[in-house]
Known about the structure:
By secondary structure, the protein is α/β, with parallel strands linked by helices. It contains 5 helices and 7 strands, in the order βαβαβαββββαα.
Amino acid sequence: MSKIVLASGNIGKLRELSQILSPLGLELIAQSDLNVPEADETGLSFVENALIKARNASLLTGLPAIADDSGIEVDALHGAPGIFSSRYAGPDASDTDNIQALLEAMKDVPETERTARFQCVVVFMRHAEDPTPLICQGSWQGQILQSPLGDEGFGYDPIFWVAETDCTAAELSPEQKHAISHRGKAMRQFMEEFKYTRHQP
Length: 201
């Protein structure tokens, strides 16, 4: 099981997950490189959407698949954008579009009420009909800034202030981010449990 399809075409996500998984000696292939279309994310939770994406990628490639569904939950917006984070400003929204939409929605929210968290659910399926997919979850607390800062990362990273590092997620190096991020936490849980999963039929 050296090749795993990533149920995403997001280059930033592929880069992050490939770095995190490199100690396992796994080759991560973006589904877009295998002409796998994006699955319709019809779930009502991060878990449901991750399962949908992993199953779709595994079914169409015959490979084990890993998917993550992640997003940002803003307390002042009752948990939005949540599962709609990647398309908050519309179906084909860019990271910049989504950031601007979120900043606009929060323009009247005082600093003390701008708390938020990133959520990440990672699902691994050995095959498309895997009855016991591996499901891991991580979260990362922070605050939403008034304007972007930093050039690293992707998504909402430039407006996500991390108190423990006194900077935004977009000002952290990849190594620093992996150590404390929602995706890093979920992936470390995955790596811990994967060694038991990979030898099962």
